[in-house]
TrEMBL record:
One of its GO terms (molecular function) is kinase activity. Signal peptide: none annotated. The lineage of its organism: Bacteria, Bacillati, Actinomycetota, Actinomycetes, Micrococcales. It comes from Microbacterium croceum. Belongs to the glycerate kinase type-1 family. This is Glycerate kinase.
């Protein structure tokens, strides 16, 4: 009997990691009905982080909360309460920026006005519950506000030269003169999950690298926001060149100021959901993501899973929405692209579960 661990990331914007794992298992079972499946859907701090914990940790509870989304309108979402452990006797809260202040919540990009207030409000709700530890996923950000919206929700004040509260989002950073952290809520043990190592500012900073995808397409505007982030760093007392502070439009830096520790997302999620233990006696590990490309070898879920499988003596196989020409698939015993199976990327995107089932069957045949 083949023991198969299913540990894909989400296929961004099309199917969750948990649903992707189910579809892959169905496809594999069609070829190898005697196989035993262990579901460990993965995430690296971005979309699907909360869902990965919910699927893997028994006794986790959804805690509903309504927050101000990135467009300033209410968003009904939830944070996840994990059961008490020796390290977190009052429980752990998992809060996902993507579901509170994420770019997928916008009908249209708002490069100047979107902010992270909702993320901070969800964190505040978890603190009100009295948890011992926070696990914060900060992928899929909609804004470049330097985390000011989040810190404001936790008690900080960001003011202009006249002592007035600055506008939300990147727009307000230009007039920022005073930072008041005197009422900032104390932080518990805070782990910040990210796969981004970019600094807050500069040519590899939050604005230069990630600004365009959030709508900051004008170079003059990006220069203005980058300069504002440098000033914000000085007012907060952090180094704008510190790796990871540019994650989520500067939210990584704001969380460092609050006391958070930036950790590699995939590795931290794997530890907290017991992935190594699940893989220890596996024959095959199936992983995947929406686009496997030249950047996927840098701490992303598939490359991390391939390394973990190799250490356990298991075969790693890959299913991806697409596999680009610059991608290195040598880590995997077999790999398959949904776009190739479906005939086009559009067809694969239209029916991801169908083509993931087909991918599961193809990988099962390849593993024989």
């Amino acid at each position: 009997m083949t023991r198969v661990v299913l540990a894909p990331d989400s296929f961004k914007g099309t199917i969750t990691a948990a649903d992707a794992a189910r579809a892959l298992a169905e496809g594999w079972a069609a070829v190898d009905p005697a196989a035993e499946f262990v579901h460990r859907p993965m995430a690296d701090g971005g979309e699907g982080t909360v869902a990965a914990f919910e699927a893997a940790v028994a006794g986790s509870l959804r805690m509903p909360v309504t927050v101000d989304g990135p467009a300033g309108v209410p968003v009904d979402t939830f944070w996840l309460l994990l059961p008490p452990t020796a390290d977190a006797p009052l429980g752990t809260a998992v809060v996902d920026l993507g579901s509170t202040s994420g770019i997928e919540l916008l009908d249209e990009l708002r490069p100047w006005d979107a902010d992270t207030s909702g993320f901070g409000q969800a964190i505040a709700a978890a603190l009100d519950h009295g948890v011992s530890r926070l696990v914060l996923g900060i992928g899929s950000s909609a804004s470049t506000d330097g985390g000011t919206g989040m810190l404001t929700a936790l008690g900080a004040r960001f003011l202009d030269a006249d002592g007035a509260v600055i506008a939300r989002g990147a727009r307000g950073l230009a007039s920022l003169t005073i930072v008041d952290l005197s009422a900032l809520r104390p932080a518990p043990d805070v782990r910040v999950l990210t796969d981004v190592t970019n600094p807050l500012a500069g040519p590899r900073g939050a604005t230069a690298v990630f600004g365009p995808q959030k709508g900051l397409v004008d170079e003059v505007g990006r220069v203005r926001v980058d300069a504002a982030l440098v000033r914000l760093a000085a007012l907060l007392g952090i180094d704008a060149a510190l790796p990871g502070t540019g994650a989520a439009g500067g939210t990584g830096g704001a969380l460092v100021v609050w006391g958070g520790v930036l950790v590699p997302g995939a590795a931290e999620v794997a530890e907290l959901i017991g992935l190594a233990e699940a893989i220890a006696d596996a024959d095959v590990v199936i992983t995947g993501e929406g686009s496997y490309d030249g950047q996927s070898g840098d701490g992303k879920v598939p490359s991390f899973l391939a390394s973990l499988a190799a250490d356990a003596g298991a075969r790693a196989v890959l299913a991806a929405g697409r596999i680009t020409a610059d991608a290195d698939t040598s880590l995997f015993a077999a790999s398959v692209s949904l776009a190739d199976l479906a005939g086009s990327s559009a067809a694969a995107l239209a029916e991801p579960a169908r083509w993931l089932r087909a991918a599961g069957s193809a990988l099962a045949r390849a593993a024989r």
